[in-house]
Fold this sequence. Notes:
This protein has helices at 5-22, 30-41, 46-68, 77-92, 98-120, 125-145, 147-150, 175-196, 199-209, 211-216, 221-247, 257-270, 277-295, 300-314, 318-332. By secondary structure, the chain is mainly α. Helix 3 (46-68) runs antiparallel to helix 11 (221-247), helix 9 (199-209) crosses helix 11 and helix 13 (277-295) packs antiparallel against helix 14.
Amino acid sequence: xxxxxxxxxxxxxxxxxxxxxxxxxxxxxxxxxxxxxxxxxxxxxxxxxxxxxxxxxxxxxxxxxxxxxxxxxxxxxxxxxxxxxxxxxxxxxxxxxxxxxxxxxxxxxxxxxxxxxxxxxxxxxxxxxxxxxxxxxxxxxxxxxxxxxxxxxxxxxxxxxxxxxxxxxxxxxxxxxxxxxxxxxxxxxxxxxxxxxxxxxxxxxxxxxxxxxxxxxxxxxxxxxxxxxxxxxxxxxxxxxxxxxxxxxxxxxxxxxxxxxxxxxxxxxxxxxxxxxxxxxxxxxxxxxxxxxxxxxxxxxxxxxxxxxxxxxxxxxxxxxxxxxxxxxxxxx
Length: 333
């Protein structure tokens, strides 16, 4: 019996460590406290703030597949755009209820994610990267050609989004939109947090690190990659729907390559595969873009690129990665 004790102790320690991953820590409240404080401190920038919150959700969806499952994609704007157009078309055709619009966007984007993922996730590397681009390009052209439904290059206009629960009306100052996006982001973050801290999430990390070993232990690699891809697509669709509902306009830019590339830049700034990197990278990029564009309207992208070079060379793992290393050092001391 004694030879079983170390094994039992180890299992107990593993279970305790796994359960600690699900516990909420005090620092996890910081993003939400900062977001609430920003509402009162910057009342003239609430429209920008609501867009930042929606893009954070989009970044979380990309981080789920890239940072945890290791699925490299340059076409995630496809799902963002599907969600935006789904909510927009509903609102432009007499159904502007926002919550059901979000759900419809999530379902539509998840279906596209399942259909495309079933094909493209059979490949890896550069082939996978190119196929994600192809999916986004095909949807872009579809939206451009379907002028009757999407408005084509002119954009989808005539949206009418109803008040939330029939009470909270969207206004031009962004008061309702800000808290609406904040609440939706919070629930989206809970989904991502619970996913990555679950046994399913740990298996995704294993797939990212060593696919062959996961196959060897009998893990259903293909199924889990497809499930997380569809879940990520649904979250991206919700983010797109948020953007459409708060701006009450949808243009072809929701599906273009630049959006997919920009979201990766934001994640690199904050830190890929760290859950909270999106909360740092997205606001920093969007605020920097706003400031640089105001100071240098012609060459503002140069300064963004210069900042990216600095981060890649000197801040490995992004800003959140630096914070993690500093905290690790302080614990050792």
